Amino acid sequence: MKNRTVIGISCIILSIAVMFGVSPIINKMTSGKIEVIQLNKHMKQGQQITSNDVVKVTIGSYGIKKNVVKDKNSLIGKYTKNDLYPNCNIYPEMISDKADSAEDTFKSLSGTQMAISISISNLAGGVSGKLKNGDIVSVIAVNESESSISPELTYVKVITTTTAKGSDSNTLKPNEDGTTELPSTVTLLVNPKQAKLLANYEKNGKVHLALVYRGTDENAKKYLEVQNKVFENEVKTNG
Question: Which of 7, 28, 82, 142 has an alpha carbon within 20 to 30 A of 59's alpha carbon?
Answer without folding.
Answer: 82
